[in-house]
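User: I'm putting together a teaching handout on how multi-component assemblies are represented. Below are the sequence lines for each component of a complex, exactly as they appear in our records. Could you produce the 3D structure of the whole assembly as structure tokens, so the students can see both representations side by side? Please keep the chain order the same as the input.
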Amino acid sequence: MRAAIEAYDEGADVALLSKIHPVRSHSGAAEGGINAALGNASEDDPEKHAFDTVKGSDYLGDQDAIQVLCDEAPDDVYQLENWGAVFSRTDDGRIAQRPFGAAGEPRTAYAADITGHVLVHVLYEQVMKRDIPTYEEYFAWKLVIHDDRCQGVIAWDLLNGGLKTIGAKTVILATGGAGRLYTGTTNAYACTGDAMSMALRVGVPLKDMEMMQFHPTTLAPTGILITEGCRGEGAYLLNAEGERFLSRYAPNAMELASRDVISRAEQTEIDEGRGIDGNVLLDLRHLGAERINERLHGTRELSLTYAGVDPIHEPIPVRPGAHYHMGGVDTDLDGLTNVTGLYAAGECACVSVHGANRLGGNALMETITFGKRAGRAAAEWALTHTTVSVPPSIEADTERELKELLARSEGERPWAIRDELATTMHENFGVFRREEQMLEQGRIVEGLRERYERVVVDDKGDIFNNDLTQALELGFMLELAQCMVVAGLARKESRGAHARPHDYPDRDDENFLQHTMTTLDGQGQVQLDWKPVTMTKWQPQERTY
Amino acid sequence: MGDPFERRLGVKVAYYKGCLAALSAKELDTSTKALAPRVGIELEELESVTCCGAGDIHEAEPDYYLHLNARILAYGEATGAETLMTVCNVCTLNLRQANVSLQKDDDLRERVNRNLEAVGVPPYSGGIEVKHLLWMIAEGEGFERLQESAHKGLKGLKIAPFYGCQILRPSKILGFEDPDRPWSLEAIIQACGGEAVDYPAKIKCCGFPIIQAREETALGELIQPIEQAMEAGADAMVTPCPLCHLSLDAWQQKLEASTGRSFQMPILHLSQLIGVAAGLEESELKFKRHVVPVTPVLEKLEA
Amino acid sequence: MSVTDDFVRSEYATMTVALKIWRFDASTGERELKDYEVEAPEWACLLDVLDLIKDKVDGSLAYRKSCRMMICGSCGMRMDGAAVLACKERMKPIVDRGHVPVISPMGNLPIVRDLVVDMGPFWNKIRAVKPWLDAGYDEVAEKERIVSQQAMNVIHKEALCIMCGCCVSECNSMESDPDFLGPAALAKGFRFVGDPRDQDGVQRLNEYNEEHGIWDCTRCYFCNERCPKGVDPRDAIAKLGAESIKQGIDHDMGAKHAKWFITSAKTTGWLRETELVPKTQGVVAAIKQTKFAIKLFRHGKVPLPFPPHVAEGVEEARGLYDLVINEGRRGALGIVQAERALAKISEEHPEGTPAWGTRSNGDSA
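Assistant: Of course. Below is the structure of the complete assembly, with chains in the same order as your input.
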């Protein structure tokens, strides 16, 4: 939406297309906040923000991109406030900022614990203000590539049925991640990595796909997110013995260490028998009822509904859960991919500002800043080029492929494949990774891809056929899983979210201070390449919290 | 004292009758007063009180609404009773809502009390609970006394209970029973020897609050309970709210005019329904004050 | 997560959940109430059960879903006639009491298929309230505007709205007048009227005072009851009413009706019922109602206005009016000031206030 608004304001004829209504986007579930060096709660500046982000990324982030993010963040946040975002306020009426993990200053601007919700709605308000046409519940399936450039999207119209082609001089992919690859994930059902896979299929490399962030505080069994804002407000993490175990892993930052560090600490505690039914405990009780109700109201609601626990009186059982894909569509600083006319921004993209580990509060900021930049760049290109053409053959091919899928009546339905994928990814490609498990996962995914070739869609109808779209989503996810495994095997070191304590426990800057780049070959097999990390002023240091 | 029902001491309540029972629904007041001793309720009528604002003052001048209701609560508390009894849904919600605000927010109560005292009203300490007549007799002692009193019975009359809105919702403030599956009117109908008929619109709106400003919309709401009660074979409807009563009874003719259909559905106040079963006199029940005649029901009972 | 077999098989105890679902086939226009039964983990919510049915029993069952954590607003539907978010409703207590709930699409919106409704009319109404902040200038300021948290708290509840449509589904007024803006749109409207940064409050209030606006609300309180996020849309509508009166926007009959109650309380203490119609509808319209009024009069439904029925101590009520009118709590603030107490109820009973009546009708409904 941020990209659409910017493109519109640049004078382009723009439309939004989304498989769910824009306000249903999973950005709305982001709870904690958005990072910008406003300096409202301390002396802060973009330079400090950039350093924290570089360090947090375990030096895999591209430093030019990080600089852009941190420099532009304050003005972008002010703009959101001007548009009407309901931020929480300081005593002197400015945007309030709270401490977040691995941030040297209290830098996370927030709206209680519903920041994402507030931002999604304010952006949609601006979309309505501009009356930007919106193709709601259009399931994007194929990018139209013609004359070596992207010229539109072919989508399935959920409400009415049928494939619809939307021609466009430029296309911006601005979707979320692929958390649905895992059983325990904070992600919505919609987070199936569609845009990453669509780009992959037209020859765009996916960068750093092994980097899936595990959030340290998710609810068992479903992985519903409990915000980092809890720890920002001072919550403790305890093991079964009631110990604040982070004193052994991150003695200085404690609960505000970076996410990868805490998730690994939790998993170690659980694996070594100091967990409680596969969880550790997040204790908010000492914050008091008033603070919990005022600043963490949504957390209390979620905890009560999905864990039956009132955090005012009891600690919340939490465990690491798949949360955010640092990797994604490789782009430049304006969101442009290697295909003319095709841009990407947000979680589906990898500029990369997060590298091997994202800091809490940087995801929302990335969507805004790079959404804006992609929107501007795409509009500029569109306004200086005139033609759009979609050859009928592309539409016909897509139509044929769809009919083939719908016509199939013998075979298995997608859910068993989907469940097996999610369970095995969790087992074999989780917080800690072993060579043999990753190899095994590669074989499993290959087998699942074969089974997927014969998948059957139960629903043959036109109207609101999400049986069909869910089958297409599975196709996307299977390809992404394979990219992740290939990239994970190739990265023979431990860096950020990619932890191999058993064979390569240390970071290896000599060999792996570079991005994995995965592409599909003609046979649909994943190919791996490398790309150097952009370094400007920060040289790798040891990373402790 | 020959009457066995009056021998046991009743529970004393501060009785707030509200506007309608004082004006166009006097029959509600007389039947409530006649019924009270038979169901063990001793009424101490509040004289020095005003209208609760009927949701209208709450919407127009909410701060004034709070003070008006605080004043009623203060005079209720001054009687020494633990309960302030209402006979109207709207009064119940208004008073309970104000009571929650005053009981759970010390700062707000202190401010309101300062203003009350400035005009000579005793301060309110938050010590009275607001209950509707329905709740007083749907369970416990009241229900036992009701069963004893309703000796005349309703002889299997089919009665459609109509709750209306503001005795059920918002349940956060009212909360006596499950707002989607209420049981109190049914329990009372059965205890009186009647048969409670079920229909979906019994918990919906009668349209009264907008019947003057948006008559067409209101009638569109009103028709649902009346039509459904008829289809369910009800001989009459009973409601705990005089505003619903006015809507169902008086505006029924407008509904007939606009639809060209005849409903002639008799509408009873809760106190009248029990009053019939308990053998109250016409002078107390005052059915002549109804627009839709209740005679068919009474005749059926006599038969 | 998806309700994987793995979860069903091991780790978690399971239960058998039975549902009846209203299916609707848009191509034929046929409706059918179908029975389903699946094995589900004990922690399953309604949405998990629907997922199991779609996976294991019938892939053609259509419903919306996304976040499964009460924030995206996709999965509004009805259970036993009451609008809910499917992801919020725990099934265990329902199974435990042996109940088989009926699942149907939300009300007041056209059905697309099965449990999917057309949200188009819903969004059209949202658009009708000018749903964006009017800052009064085009250029973005260099920094944020300075606003106190206290001032922003005025719209705290309305900002929670997730646009799920549960309130609209149950709106009694909208059932009767489909053009009524309705609870969601009006709550969105107050989100701006109450925002100290918005410069268009009076114009907004004028627009919301139009025919299908705030005075259409019949105060059935279904919206407050159903809202899964605690927005209390009815209260938002009352806040708009209060702001309108404060701004002197009182041309609507609903506003006149409301104001007459204030006059009554100040002058006689009790409602001056007989004069209510002319004060609301105007004298001419009131005369047209004469026939109706005469009939009511015969039954004592129209008390004589003279001599006025004056409450004891009415001068106290008048005195209170004179006092509070100058204390700066007119308009929406008069309602907002009660929210602290209301919030305490939710804090004490976070999973919903239990009925305090001692009996229950079990499962007879």
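A couple of points students might notice: Chain A has a mean pLDDT of 96. The CA atoms of residues 200 and 519 of chain A lie 6 Å apart.
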